[in-house]
Every structure is written in C-alpha cells, then in structure tokens.
C-alpha cells in the first residue's frame, strides 16, 4: 500500500492538545474511526489485538484489522506476553499504520490471567524489553498505554524505564487495575507522570464531554486527551460546537452499512449513541431488535430515517 502516514509525533508538535479516540474492544473499528475523524478527532486506535494470533494467522489479520486511505493517522494496539510476538506483529503491521502501541492497561481478569494488559504493570523490565525489540524492528513510533500504580512513584519509574529504550509517547489511564470505572480518575497520577516525562503524555479516563477534555488537559498539562466511553456515546465529543445526535447517528449507519459491519457491533454502537435520544420505553424495544433490517425498519417507522449506504473505498 503506497500512502504516506501522518505521524502522531507530528501531531504532538503541531497541536497544543491532540484529541484521540481510544482503543476499544470491538468498537474502534474502521467505520467508527472514520466517523469520529469528521468531528475533530485527530488520532484513532484500533481495538486491542492479540499479537501472537495476529502474527500467526492471515485470517486473524484480515478479521482484526482493516484500513484504507482515509484511515490516517491510525495506531494499531497489540497485547503481548513477550517481546518476540510484539515485534513480529508490529513488523507485519508497520506498512499500514502510523504507529504501534503496547497495551499495559486492560484490567479484565481474563487478560491479567493471560499475562497481558495491566498484568504488565508489575513487570516493567519485560515491557522495557518489548519496547526495545519493537523499536529495533520498525521505523514507526512505538507507544505504551499504562495504568497508575497505587504507589505513584512506581508509575513514574515505569514510564522512565520505557523512555530509556526509546518509547515515543505514553498514555496514562488514571486508575489502578483494581479500581472500578465508577471511581474518579486520579488526575494527580497523570500530572505527575507528565511532570517527570521527556516524551509526550496522553491522559485517559473520565472524558465524557469537550469540557472534560479541556479541564483535564489544562490541569495535567498533557499533550493529548483520549476518550473511550464518552466518545462511544457521543462521537462528536471533540467537535468545536454542539452537534445534533442525528447527524452522527445517520453518518454512522451509512458508514457501517457501507463497510459491512456485523449486526452485534452495529446494534451496540447505536445503543450507545441513542442513550440521550430515546425514551426508556423505546430503548427497551430497540435493544431487543435482532437484525440490521429490523433496526433500519424501526428507524424508518419511528423517525422517518431513510439511509442509503455510500460507495466505499476498498478496505485493505
């Protein structure tokens, strides 16, 4: 594929604060990445992909990661247990992305049991080796996404070890792996890492509106802000002005149909987006729909919404 990728490092130099769509299991796929770019989102991530599966299976590569010329800049995020798997996967992906990220933050029990995600927060030397080997194999930026430790000195030291082998930037989720998403994010943790770092730092956690993003950026002085749950509910979260939800709902439907998104992902994205639009009674009905055609019929009957899928550029 012959295309020039925008480097995330260029974005950090050009913009005071870079607006970023987080890696989200199932949800941050190509149609959604294209959607949020229309609303002042500067950088997007793929969902977390298992490095060993990606490198060993062509079928997995085709299913887990699709892209096209509009998907730029984009970072592919991997979960890995060892440096070889990560470097091998990164080398395969490098021609098609703007950067590669190592997930050190997933706090789901299955991930920790498999030795990936936030399990790695207790193994800084392993992460250091993974970053070093990957940097030696690819010529694109390599980043890590981490969580805070209970003892914030460990978090600062973790970041410094990654910096010592050339990590290009770091995203900090301001909760420990044992904290629930309902607990407030620790902005002091993010601020402390930023004050101690020599590479760009991105803040992640509790960004549900443009005002949240602006407040967190101002308080922590970070170089970028990353939204996950907030941008699922409002893909126009980073837009400069308020956007009618129907604007992004219709655009998402067109993109999803054009790219052939499966029903599960299609339905769940709309469930998130409709949270502020539908009444509780209607939402219960909508959540029981079991096919794309049923969803389209519902939207036509209730709202007069007719959608014609656009012609799409082929995915790669």
From TrEMBL:
GO terms for biological process: mRNA processing. It holds the Pfam family Dus. It catalyses: a 5,6-dihydrouridine in mRNA + NADP(+) = a uridine in mRNA + NADPH + H(+); 5,6-dihydrouridine(20a) in tRNA + NADP(+) = uridine(20a) in tRNA + NADPH + H(+); 5,6-dihydrouridine(20b) in tRNA + NAD(+) = uridine(20b) in tRNA + NADH + H(+); 5,6-dihydrouridine(20a) in tRNA + NAD(+) = uridine(20a) in tRNA + NADH + H(+). The active site is at residue 106. It is an enzyme of class 1 (oxidoreductase). Its cofactor is FMN. Keywords: Flavoprotein, FMN, mRNA processing, NAD, NADP, Nucleotide-binding, Oxidoreductase, tRNA processing. Signal peptide: none annotated. GO terms for molecular function: flavin adenine dinucleotide binding; mRNA dihydrouridine synthase activity; tRNA-dihydrouridine20a synthase activity; tRNA-dihydrouridine20b synthase activity. Residues 21-253 form the DUS-like FMN-binding domain. Gene3D superfamilies: Aldolase class I (3.20.20.70). Its EC number is 1.3.1.-. FMN binds at residues 23-25, 77, 145, 173, 228-229. InterPro entries: Aldolase_TIM, DUS-like_FMN-bd, DUS_fam. Belongs to the Dus family. Dus4 subfamily. Belongs to the dus family. Catalyzes the synthesis of dihydrouridine, a modified base found in the D-loop of most tRNAs. This is tRNA-dihydrouridine synthase.
């Amino acid at each position: 594929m012959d295309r020039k990728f925008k480097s995330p490092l260029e974005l950090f130099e050009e913009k005071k604060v870079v607006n970023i769509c987080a890696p989200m299991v199932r949800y941050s796929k190509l149609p959604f990445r294209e959607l949020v770019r229309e609303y002042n989102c500067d950088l997007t991530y793929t969902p977390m992909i298992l490095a060993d599966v990606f490198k060993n299976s062509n079928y997995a590569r085709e299913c887990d990661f699709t892209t096209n010329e509009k998907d730029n800049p984009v970072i592919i995020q991997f979960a890995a247990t060892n440096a070889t798997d990560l470097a091998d996967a990164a080398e395969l992906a490098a021609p098609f992305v703007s950067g590669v990220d190592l997930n050190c933050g997933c706090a789901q029990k299955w991930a920790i049991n498999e030795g990936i995600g936030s399990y790695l927060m207790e193994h800084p030397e392993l992460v250091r080796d993974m970053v070093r080997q990957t940097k030696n194999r690819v010529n694109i930026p390599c980043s890590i996404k981490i969580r805070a430790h209970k003892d914030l000195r460990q978090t600062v030291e973790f970041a410094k070890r990654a910096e010592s082998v050339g990590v290009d930037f770091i995203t900090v989720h301001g909760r420990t792996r044992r904290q629930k998403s309902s607990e407030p994010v620790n902005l002091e943790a993010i601020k402390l890492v930023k004050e101690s770092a020599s590479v760009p730092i991105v803040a992640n956690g509790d960004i549900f509106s443009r005002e949240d993003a602006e407040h967190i950026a101002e308080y922590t002085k970070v170089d970028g802000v990353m939204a996950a749950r907030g941008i699922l509910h409002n893909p126009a979260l980073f837009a400069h002005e308020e956007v009618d939800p129907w604007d992004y709902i219709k655009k998402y439907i067109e993109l999803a149909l054009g790219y052939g998104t499966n029903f599960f992902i299609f339905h769940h994205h709309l469930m998130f987006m409709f949270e502020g639009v539908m009444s509780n009674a209607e939402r219960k009905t909508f959540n029981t729909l079991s096919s794309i055609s049923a969803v389209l019929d519902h939207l036509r009957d209730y709202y007069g919404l007719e959608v014609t899928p656009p012609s799409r550029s082929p995915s790669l």
